[in-house]
Amino acid sequence: MIDYKEITKQISTILQIKNEEGLNEIVALLQQRIPHYSWIGIYVVDNDMLHLGPWAGPQATEHVIIPIGRGICGSAAKTGTTEIIPDVQADERYLSCFFSTRSEIVVPIKYNCTIKGEIDIDSNQKNAFTKQDKAFLENIADMLGPHIHKL
Ligand code: SME
User: Fold this and answer.
1) Residue ranges per structural domain of the chain
2) How many Cβ atoms from other residues are within 10 Å of residue 87's Cβ?
3) What is the sign, positive or negative, of the torsion defined by CA atoms of 143, 43, 74, 121?
4) Ligand 1: distance of its center to the CA of 146 in Å?
5) N or C: which end of the chain has fewer CB within 10 A?
6) Which of 79, 121, 76 shows the shortest CA–CA distance to 103?
């Protein structure tokens, strides 16, 4: 059983103590504690582009810069709405990173009504992301907002 509440508390503590330096720790924590989160990355918006910041996972991605509007990541950054893709192969916007990825969630990070970045998570399981993941990650994104702003 995944204790989302306890993980949220830990993330809050990391942010209080370490501020933006804690972002590396947060992506690592998410990967360790939530088995269906296979790869986690935080992208930061700069000049109409998404730039990959801290990430945790078995492999680096080639998509370190993504134009806003491209791929699932670029779509979420454009609309400011969470994207849940239950089967990445069925979505023509999908930019492939890892052979093992089956589903994906992208949650925009906003601060002062502006999109500052996003949390991107790939799962090796099909249809891995539930409403609970969405609510959990949207709350984490709200917590990250002020810290992404300072990057
Ligand atoms: N799949 C994403 C690209 C980023 S990788 O998943 C790390 C997309 O379609 O935008």
Assistant:
1) 4-148
2) 12
3) negative
4) 24
5) N
6) 121
Look up tokens 């400011």; give the residue.
80
Whole-model pTM: value is 0.96
Would you say 57 and 31 are in contact if contact means Cβ atoms under 8 Å apart? yes
How far apart CA 88 and CA 72 sit, in angstroms, is 9
For atom 6 of ligand 1, the residue with the nearest CA is 97
Mean pLDDT by 10 residues, the chain (151 residues): 96 87 94 98 95 96 97 98 98 96 98 96 98 98 86 55
Cα gap 46→55, rounded to integer Å = 17
Indicate the CATH number for domain 4-148. 3.30.450.40
How far, in Å, from the CA of 17 to the mean position of ligand 1?
30
